[in-house]
Amino acid sequence: MTGGAGFLGSHLIDRLLERGDEVVCVDNLFTGAKRNIEHLHSNPRFEFMRHDVCFPLYVEVDEIYNLACPASPIHYQHDPVQTTKTSVIGAINMLGLAKRLKCKIFQASTSEVYGDPHVHPQTEDYWGNVNPIGIRSCYDEGKRCAETLFFDYHRQLGLEVKVARIFNTYGPRMHPADGRVVSNFIMQALRDEPITMYGDGSQTRSFCYRDDLVEGFLRLMDTAPDVAGPVNIGNPNEFTIRELAELVIGLTGSRSTLDYRPLPQDDPMQRQPNIAVARDKLGWEPKVQLREGLERTIEYFRDFVN
Ligand code: NAD
Ligand code: UDP
Ligand code: UDP
């Protein structure tokens, strides 16, 4: 697995080890953290390799999960050229590895391929509305190009691919300073600091709890070879960012007030997955709703306050 020391990857590794698999975690620790995987080092079926996926990788494995890529805007905009390289060259290297090993390969794609969408909720057949030269493009276009590569290796070389389009996901092990809305709001609320609301807070997102998401990954990987995706994986319950702030303030009992800031360039106004394909092909739908997932995430973040 690439990106295995990150928020989602480390959970996926936990699930794979629980069911008896052996896991090689390949990560350059750019946004990942050793603390996310330190509980695994005594496990003989776990191996960590510090490696940047922009360079070729020669290992022997039975299947590949490709998750390596910074996911939060402040992280992927920190070195945008590296972000595109990670998505595109990383995909080429992992697809080359899968081709040599004749093994199936999973890609962590994103709802960002839909950009600021004109179709709502987003279905997999919508081609998206993405600015190719904006500040989010390194991530959005990098992931779009990676999808192109996955489907060309699939058509041209018969590789078995599994492409998931992940919608906003949150939960324990999110980086507390990753700048994403859930981590920012919880940390600010726990510290009684002002909640940074970008724009008027009327933009929407649909938040999926990480356990639901990882279950969707495993089910997609287990589908028949003709199911290549892309498949939306996310929670269709949509909230405005203002509603999220109010919920976080309520659940933490915080004295925080709202601090309105400018909306960043190209910030999508709405986002909600249509998960009909996931329901049909994976028999999957999310189980954990926002209030319950936030309560668990708030408990995790309490350790980072002070
Ligand atoms: P994360 O930043 O916690 O994890 C990404 C991991 O990739 C980190 O451990 C990082 O060190 C590693 N990485 C980055 N560049 C690398 C490189 N060049 N070589 C090797 N490792 C590298 O993010 P996450 O939330 O766990 O996201 C995992 C995947 O899911 C990413 O591909 C992301 O684009 C995708 N995704 C996540 C979300 C979400 O809401 N969390 C939404 C859509 C898509
Ligand atoms: N690659 C890799 N590990 C492997 C096999 C290939 O990292 O086990 C890389 C290799 O460096 C190449 C890329 O994957 O740049 C794409 O491989 P592919 O075989 O598709 O292309 P080619 O080598 O023919 O250019
Ligand atoms: N956002 C916000 N305050 C913050 C962080 C984010 O209002 O402190 C907004 C952001 O402008 C966006 C939404 O919350 O409209 C989700 O942002 P995030 O970075 O979590 O994810 P993405 O934009 O990639 O979906």
From TrEMBL:
Pfam families per the UniProt record, alphabetical: GDP_Man_Dehyd
Record membrane topology:
Single-pass type II membrane protein
Cofactors, names only: NAD(+)
**Domain NAD(P)-binding residue range list:** 2-297
- Gene3D superfamilies assigned to the protein according to its UniProt record, in alphabetical order: NAD(P)-binding Rossmann-like Domain
GO MF terms listed in the record are:
UDP-glucuronate decarboxylase activity
Primary location group: Golgi
Keywords for the protein's UniProt record, in alphabetical order: Decarboxylase, Golgi apparatus, Lyase, Membrane, NAD, Signal-anchor, Transmembrane, Transmembrane helix
Q: Does the keyword Cytoplasm apply?
A: no
User: What SUPFAM superfamilies is this protein classified in?
Assistant: NAD(P)-binding Rossmann-fold domains
From the Swiss-Prot or TrEMBL record, state where the protein is found: Golgi apparatus, Golgi stack membrane
Top-level EC class? lyase
Q: In which pathway does it act?
A: Nucleotide-sugar biosynthesis; UDP-alpha-D-xylose biosynthesis; UDP-alpha-D-xylose from UDP-alpha-D-glucuronate: step 1/1
Return the similarity comment: Belongs to the NAD(P)-dependent epimerase/dehydratase family. UDP-glucuronic acid decarboxylase subfamily.
> In its UniProt entry, what is this protein called?
UDP-glucuronate decarboxylase
Q: Which organism is it from?
A: Sphingomonas endophytica
